């Protein structure tokens, strides 16, 4: 028997299939499994060119980024990034600078 996902609205566990839709009897929410896949793809972190970024990727900074202790220059390569939630959605360590959080809109996949 296949495992059906919990309801995305109320997190109810008693979902069932009704034709092409999934239905939650607790709250009455109906959704398509294709909608879940589209939502997951939309939520992915993307670089300045629209490429999907994942944990462990290497990226290159595309703009001088000023911060309290100096500047990260254009072309700086950052290895082994970590994707996090929030405004600054990349955590990384930059050689010569240290730990830093970056916005994905200012990097491109290497």
From TrEMBL:
Coiled coil: none
InterPro entries referenced in this protein's UniProt entry, alphabetically: YjdM, YjdM_C, YjdM_N
Domain called Protein YjdM C-terminal: residue spans: 46-110
Superkingdom of source: Bacteria
Stored Pfam families: YjdM (PF03831), Zn_Ribbon_YjdM (PF08274)
Family matches, as PANTHER family: PROTEIN YJDM, PROTEIN YJDM-RELATED
Protein name: PhnA protein
Provenance organism: Rhodopirellula maiorica SM1
